[in-house]
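ESCALATION

Customer reports they have been waiting on this structure for their group meeting. Please prioritize. Original submission:
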Amino acid sequence: MSEYAVYEPTEKSWATVKNAFSYAWNNKKLVWKLILFYGPFFLLSLLLSAVAQVTSMEQYAHWGFFGLIAALGHFVLSVFVPIFVAVTWHRIVINGPDGVKFSNPLVPKKRDWKFLGFWLLVGFIYFLLGMVSIGGMTFIGINLYAISPILSLLSVVLALVVFIYLIYAGTRFSFIFPSVATDHNYPIKTIWRMSKGLIMKLWGAGFLSMLVMIPLTILFVAFPAVLALLISAVAGGELMFAILGVLVLAPIFIFMQVFFSVIGITLLSNYFMVAKQRLNA
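Update from on-call: job pushed to the front of the queue and completed.
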């Protein structure tokens, strides 16, 4: 008999949120293994961030080159490592926890590269679409204001509509990520079709989960951060805050980073499983 719980998908938003938190709690040993496995990578990212922060100070300006390298390393890790967390947890939720091997950032597999490629491609496309459509409409609206305030307002409203639709379309296309992570590899047309009717439920679940996470963030992150800031203000300024940030805040940050990722990935995995059931019905 397995020591881990198996995930059963639900459709209603609040039921899905409760399901996601319950699943994380029932598999807390697995969540801790996830934290311990990926924690060193997140810690290295935080250390590089601290180095970049310290070398940006005037008195350490002669170390600026190393600070630039550290900042670049921090950026790469902060983008790269969460990809592996996502691939691993998608597989745990959808395929079941037994027998799932953690995706290793030091030894990426084909699915990891494919996941990263889709993530970068989707992000780049939507960045361009957002810049062109929203930026263009806003520019037109500003220039039309002198001619006709009504036309200017309409262009702003149209830009807002385009922005909302881009978010909607992006959410529908996001079902490609659990598909790639679990080697289903559904075509884009199938992803678009199978995600129909589930987006509002996914948005609702995401919003409700944020309401739950806000007090957790205040309790575990905001309070220690304020405490570290107060201590550093009395005993050493920016350098002390950078040191405290690594020593005091790093374990908390790593825990919350992985835990919040687990909840968010579970929500997306849940509705992917619902969509897959509908597709196979």
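Sent to customer with the following note: The chain has nine helices and no strands.
Escalation resolved.
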